[in-house]
């Protein structure tokens, strides 16, 4: 069982930056796929970025060049650095993890997820 706790959300103006963190309660043995997702009101869940246990990454087209996923294996913490934020990035962001590779992409089933943290971008 892995518990995930996100932090770092808040309000920011368009063009600003924010860094989200997600701490895992237990050590995760490789291989695993850890990622960020977001959901805006009235919209479907959207995959944002994934990172595997070997630090290979996948970023959604909508955030490429603006967002960067990374992790600290010692701290068992996942990060999402968000730059050049736009109002359309407003959503609840949550992290999720699954054991196995990231080959299934954002559509794979992620067994564990956090409660999420709200990010609001104003114009």
- Biggest β-sheet strands, sense, barrel: 7 strands, mixed
* Percent helix: under 10%
Q: Which oligomeric state applies?
A: single chain
Mean pLDDT: 96
What's the tally of helices?
A: 0
Shape annotation: globular
List SSEs in N-to-C order.
EEEEEEEEEEE
Task: Tell me what you see in this structure.
It is a single chain. By secondary structure, this protein is an all-beta fold. The chain has no helices and eleven strands. The strands form two sheets. Strands 2, 4, 5, 6, 9, 10 and 11 form a seven-stranded mixed beta sheet that branches. Strands 1-3-8-7 form a four-stranded antiparallel beta sheet, with no helix packed on it. β7 and β8 form a beta hairpin.
What descriptive keywords fit this protein?
123 residues; mainly beta; 0% helix; seven-stranded mixed beta sheet
Helix/strand layout:
Blueprint: E1 4-7, E2 10-13, E3 18-24, E4 32-39, E5 46-52, E6 57-59, E7 67-72, E8 77-82, E9 91-99, E10 112-113, E11 117-122
Parallel strand pairs: 2-11
Antiparallel strand pairs: 1-3, 3-8, 4-5, 4-9, 5-6, 7-8, 9-10, 9-11
Quick synopsis:
It is built from no helices and eleven strands. It has 123 residues and is mainly beta.
